[in-house]
Write a structure and sequence with these properties.
- With 187 residues, this protein is mainly β.
- It has one domain: Beta Barrel (Lipocalin), CATH 2.40.128.
- It has one helix and eleven strands, in the order ββββββββαβββ.
- The chain has a ten-stranded antiparallel β-barrel.
- The chain binds protoporphyrin IX containing FE.
- The site of protoporphyrin IX containing FE has 22 residues, from β1, β2, β4, β6 and β9.
Length: 187
């Protein structure tokens, strides 16, 4: 790992670096017979952490991020997520690893494209996919299984918005668990 972070070209990931706040979050989450709808606010910190060489032939640049999400109704943290965003310039590939303390983790892959003055990052993972997969505990596999995940982040200047969909098998049905928010870069 190279830790001369300031000399590294983070490619498209550079636009994510910083501390972002947003208070227009909308979460739709499962309940046994219906769904809950949770307005939320959050802070996401993306930190440049350097580059990595794999098998002496792949170079990745990476950001670490931490996302802390609070319910507006009681100000309690109800989602805590961390992971990395990685960029493989040679293969034109964006990778997003995430872990949440429900004992669920995944590695999503995809790309980035320009849309006007914005950059749009789109990644996806699927249970059983040999490339971009999902790992979860036996309890979650049997009771609240994550089967697919898609995530799109749009960044234009100091404005960031995202939309993510987590497909769950829970309470005997398939459920579309969604989260979206718009954030502004601090400072
Ligand atoms: C802003 C992002 C997210 C928020 C605010 C959020 C919030 C929630 C909430 C409120 C529940 C209902 C259960 C509870 O009240 O604790 C839930 C369930 C769940 N979430 Fe999320 N979630 C987010 C993102 C994710 C992501 C990225 C994943 C995995 C890829 C995930 C996986 C799950 C699973 C597996 C459950 C089922 C557990 C259960 O309901 O007992 N969530 N989430």
């Amino acid at each position: 790992m190279n830790d001369i972070k300031t000399e590294i070209d983070y490619g498209p990931l550079a636009v994510l670096i910083g501390v972002w706040d947003g208070d227009r979050g909308e979460d739709i989450a499962p309940e046994p017979d219906s769904e809950e709808n949770n307005p939320y606010y959050e802070t996401i910190v993306f930190e440049a952490i350097g580059d990595v060489t794999n098998a002496e032939s792949q170079t990745l640049v990476a950001l670490h991020y931490r996302q802390i999400v609070k319910r507006k109704s009681d100000d309690n943290v109800f989602h805590d997520e961390t992971g990395y965003w990685m960029w493989d310039a040679e293969r034109d590939t964006v990778m997003h690893s995430l872990a949440i303390p429900r004992a669920v983790t995944l590695l999503a892959g995809g790309g980035v494209r320009k849309e006007g003055n914005a950059l749009v990052f789109e990644v996806a993972a699927k249970l059983g996919d040999p490339d971009w997969g999902i790992i979860q505990s036996p309890f979650m596999r049997d009771n609240a299984k994550t089967t697919a995940f898609t995530h799109a982040i749009t960044v234009a200047g100091d404005e960031l918005s995202y939309m993510e969909t987590t497909m769950l098998d829970i309470y005997g049905r398939s459920f579309e668990h969604t989260d979206k928010n718009s954030l502004t870069r601090q400072g």
